[in-house]
Amino acid sequence: xxxxxxxxxxxxxxxxxxxxxxxxxxxxxxxxxxxxxxxxxxxxxxxxxxxxxxxxxxxxxxxxxxxxxxxxxxxxxxxxxxxxxxxxxxxxxxxxxxxxxxxxxxxxxxxxxxxxxxxxxxxxxxxxxxxxxxxxxxxxxxxxxxxxxxxxxxxxxxxxxxxxxxxxxxxxxxxxxxxxxxxxxxxxxxxxxxxxxxxxxxxxxxxxxxxxxxxxxxxxxxxxxxxxxxxxxxxxxxxxxxxxxxxxxxxxxxxxxxxxxxxxxxxxxxxx
Amino acid sequence: xxxxxxxxxxxxxxxxxxxxxxxxxxxxxxxxxxxxxxxxxxxxxxxxxxxxxxxxxxxxxxxxxxxxxxxxxxxxxxxxxxxxxxxxxxxxxxxxxxxxxxxxxxxxxxxxxxxxxxxxxxxxxxxxxxxxxxxxxxxxxxxxxxxxxxxxxxxxxxxxxxxxxxxxxxxxxxxxxxxxxxxxxxxxxxxxxxxxxxxxxxxxxxxxxxxxxxxxxxxxxxxxxxxxxxxxxxxxxxxxxxxxxxxxxxxxxxxxxxxxxxxxxxxxxxxxxxxxxxxxxxxxxxxxxxxxxxxxxxxxxxxxxxxxxxxxxxxxxxxxxxxxxxxxxxxxxxxxxxxxxxxxxxxxxxxxxxxxxxxxxxxxxxxxxxxxxxxxxxxxxxxxxxxxxxxxxxxxxxxxxxxxxxxxxxxxxxxxxxxxxxxxxxxxxxxxxxxxxxxxxxxxxxxxxxxxxxxxxxxxxxxxxxxxxxxxxxxxxxxxxxxxxxxxxxxxxxxxxxxxxxxxxxxxxxxxxxxxxxxxxxxxxxxxxxxxxxxxxxxxxxxxxxxxxxxxxxxx
Lengths: 272, 556
Description:
The complex is a heterodimer. By secondary structure, chain A is α/β, with parallel strands linked by helices.
């Protein structure tokens, strides 16, 4: 039988992939936020972003395509003392997992979702994603994308998500700052949408393209101002705002549950 | 002796309230009670009925024909009156009797007269039922107190007077029906849905999630009701896909978790079952069957999802399927399912149906005290711990996140350490490891239960909720001098082919009795090489079998 052990290399990403930067920054952010990795659970679905948990050190639940959020919800409720972080892509989180996204944010479950948003399907080699810009031509969308792009940040703000931010893989300092802010966020759902170039399958939204457009949100923005946050969430084109768009003090889902006051459910069996 | 009361009317008329009070009242009289419900998928109108069979000896299934029909509408009297047993009576909600065997009381008018509230029509009917059967309505006093105390003493008193008045109005008719004797020893009553839920709560299930779907919802609702008492997190999922993935997440986190659905929801869970198989997570799904494809007949009963439950989920992975036959087994097998799922770290299904979910039975008290199952968790894993270490049994030491070692689980094929791996030798090692667990489950499999003479000429092969009706059919046929026995399968997978073959033996006539059209269990037994020639007796009407029906069809 052929032995593929040597060929089974990792990471499985293309050279120049934005994921390398995100991974490196993620490891730095975990250090900076002083997380105990044995209490860190990385949850992912399927896609290139979803492979990230395999390339770092943590507890890992790499589940089904689109289903990271319900799995993460189950993990958080089983042991709410774990730091549950989801690493997902735009297809996984906003396409296949769209319904779960709507409801996880609505619940405001206290997990952190880092969405590597490259506006394209990488693992399946270049089809449009829910966030692809209109007009983008692919082998499947050969006359160009006609559907309006999904605006995750606007949806999250509309649902009163407790932490909503955007960053860019090409600006590692900003990305680290956002990751640390999300990891330190103590409360409900934290969404960090990370603009990530895909050099192999997205020739439209390149490093250059993003670099020319991303603008850090100015200090005058009040993240508790929901309408101002929505306006930033809808800003997309010549200018793309990055930073913390919105914060809400809505209590987390798990904080409503009196039954969790006695500690994690997983610790109630006398054998641990 | 036994007697069946059928309470029938439109949805929203109080059929359930009256029926439930009659069941509770009979249980307090110390009668053996078995009830079933038949309803249409609507909130108002239609024709629903609640059958309550009471006896002085253990009952296992419903009767075909009621001895007393409580008809809340003319439609109920006309349509169901024809099903009345010989010598039966109709208690009709009307001012005027339409026939010699019809006792007429305008329940609402009496309620208005006694308490100025037509809402209490149901308690007038309750009193009339007790009066007709010659039972003292006193026994209902405590029941009404329990039922209505929250609403105030006046409400309790008014309802008591309505019961008394109902009984008085039929005083002259009392004794027209032969009723079983009260023993006076009150007995607990459980339904299948509640018994399964109680088992889960007592077994230490601490996370429950579901998308509401008839006829599984009652189990979900029961657990929500008991959540504070048992310390359970209950969450309504956005869909069944979320439900099974949340269960997988909670199981990974170390908490026994469960979801419940019907066939359509199971279809949505199929990928999640496969995930639990691949990640080796103890996920338990209660599947309450209902008939026909797609939405089908949502409130009726069926045994049509056996092969689906057996095959749902892509790829090959081990699973177990239990199928309770009685309310008592709903409790026992739900616990067994949880234990099996945790012992073998794999998905387990409990296959029940509308008939059993809604069935109430008097029985000995079920154990409600917390008795957590063994989660099978390694509490002190070494730093080099591997979640999928290869073992002879296929069961790897299971740690949970938050301890000293990283716990890595992947839906992709993985190496022993849990990380994604595409090496083919490693894949085969893991695949074989997973499937070896089925050998252990097979060795642990519950044997089929035999009822009837050892050397019977005819053997009925039955599974799940057909237990009761089949048992009654065996009794009827054997009493008539026939030679019939039955073999009931509480566990449908894995099957120990040798043990099952031996249990079946070589009767002259073998008949699979199933609530489906194609004989799914017969197909399974054949595919396992266990049986060959076997007749098929099916019922896919959406209504359950009765013992009389099975006996009659076997005689033919």
